[in-house]
Fold this protein.
Amino acid sequence: MQTDEKLLFQCILESQLGLGCSQKSFEIVRYRKISFSCSSANFSGFANISWQQIMAQLPLNFPQTFLPDRRLLGQLLAFAARNGSGDKEAIGAETGIPTGKSTGKVEPMIHYALGMGLVSAMKSKGVWQLGLTPLGDCVVREDPMLGEPLTLWLLHLLLCRRSGVELPAVGLADAWFALFAEGPVSLGGQFTEAAFHRLLVQRHGNKSYLKGLSTLVPRMYTERACFGEAGILTAVPGDDGKPLLRRARAPLEKGLFPAY
């Protein structure tokens, strides 16, 4: 197996690990125009990425008020590709991601990238050390603008994955897990932002930021600068004039197998 083929296979394995799937043997793996055969799973490429890091839960309000802009995520990935380090102001200055001393988009973008399985990150005394995961490296080389449906669906599914095996189940990014993994049962096939807000309150108590979070998560999938192009969540008119939100099923086209 060639080096690029091994890397792509590791990318697929990482996505499967993040989604809580069991170890699998794939006969044919295809990503864009690259295909190769494999017969067994090899986890040696993950020596620098611990299981705890892959599955570690993010702070509930990690987005603050910021959406995962694909352009900013791409700038962060380019920084991580250089194994960049620095405090959030230094990272903002080098990447062009807006930030400040008390707030800003750098740390939310880092958390989004962590949740999507794109970067490894450690923080000590306010200084971040970033690197690419095998999946992040593949995305930087194959889709640096994060514009392809395969990329968007895979990153979405990784952001919605479960954290750990404890019960009751919680998500790595729990607002996303609640909406997309458990939402079909708790919210039904279509729902309002108000219903989603009530679900978050049931799970986490009446925290002041949950109202904003309950609108931010759906907005991620309606704004074109974020994940709107993937059609993961759509809005339809409701009887009372308020929009109803509807989840789309993950597409089953041949070109997306077996990334998720």
Notes: The chain is about 40% helix and 15% strand. The two ends are 22 Å apart (CA to CA). The beta strands are 28-31, 34-37, 85-86, 119-124, 127-132, 190-191, 233-237, 243-247.
